[in-house]
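sorry for the late reply, my laptop died twice this morning and i had to redo everyting from scratch. anyway the thing you sent over, i finally got around to it. pasting the sequence first so we're on the same page, its 454 residues, then the predicted structure underneath. double check i copied it right bc i was rushing
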Amino acid sequence: MDYLPLYQYLKGRFGKMQKNTFSVTFFATFFLISLYAVSISFAKPPKLPDLVIQDLYLNKNCQVVVKVKNNGPGMVPNEVWTIHTPKSAGVYFYKNGVGWGGASIWKFDPGRSLQSPGGTAIYTSSLKVSGSAKITATVDHWNKVKESREENNKRTEKLTCKPVPQKDLTVKISQCPTKAVKPGQSLDAKFQVIGKSTFPSALKDIAVDIILTSKPTYPSPAPYATYSPNYSDGVLLKGGREHISFKGPGKVNVKLNGSNTVPADTPPGIYYLGVVIDAGNKVKEGNEKNNVSFCRIKVVRPEIKEDCISFNPNTTRVKHVNGHWKIVDGSHWMFDFGNKKNEAERALKIIKHYHMNQSCFVGRPAPSFQYLLVSGQAPVGSFPGEDCISFNPNTTQVKHVNGHWKIVDGSHWMFDFGNNESEARQSLAIIKKYGFRYSCFVGRPDPSFKYLRK
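ok and here's the structure:
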């Protein structure tokens, strides 16, 4: 409203009162101020926000969640987001009457969703409830925002944690062998395996692998185990893969159909028989780290039945018999050298040098493997000019190569057993028992005499 014309009128009306000019001016000024004050009293008040706790609940992890709303009609001031202090406007929690803490609005609502009337913002706290608790949430705890209503900033609820069960597969092995087992032994169904599912729906053809390992660990998520006749950590046992199905949540006994054979070259020691459910990770689970169960077993060295003939190295000699040069002990024909007298004589010197007194065989009457001992021990030392190849008995193993069972050390093919796997494994056990480290020859490339020594 423009009060200037009114002021001029009043001044002119009382202008004749020359002797009281001050009174007239004072009266006019007072009148204008009074009118301005009246106009202010009738002006509309500013619009203010109204912050309320619209919802207070627990999420699936039992964390306290609050939904804040600006009921308006005004905007939340910019200072709520631009001024950061320990007492900035925010949400504060009490758990069973004890202050817990909270977060500033600028922190959980950086996009200012709450600023406009009707706007909302959600704050998921790290406050967890176990069982039940009385939770109180207040907004603008420090009364930093001037609101249209100040009495509705608080909400209290009794919240109860009801964890949602994870969709999960687990397995348990029990009734494991209590007696020591031997390499090559079949465990068959001498232990029990139970699978469990918490999935609400049916699951079909879930792989269960049966493994052997030196440590009770397995990768996660669980891959398929790999079968090999030779031992390595986590090897799948022969016949050790089964499949089970679940009609819904519950337990299933795993029927063990395979031989579950311990690899024949497994060194003696303590091992863990393991079962892996969902091998190959076909099913996505809430927890992929609990798909394995183990039990402890002991593997012992098998008894080796050795076939040895004793002789006396002091009475052993080279003799020409029926056109063949032989090493004999009395009437016992021990080694035949055909027409190779020099090789027979060299072999005899080796026998006498080491004091060998036992000639041993695997697979008579046509042995696939032969060795000599010194009173039940491996020959030790060296013979001048001997032809030997070294190997490591700890890394030596039986392998199926090009249709033949062989004893190998890395890429070195040492002994060939054709299709006779059992004799190959028995021979490897003998090598390891005596700790042979050298394979020696007389007369290569077609040796007439072979021996092993340390």
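The CA atoms of residues 89 and 140 lie 5 Å apart.
thats about all i looked at so far, will dig more tmrw
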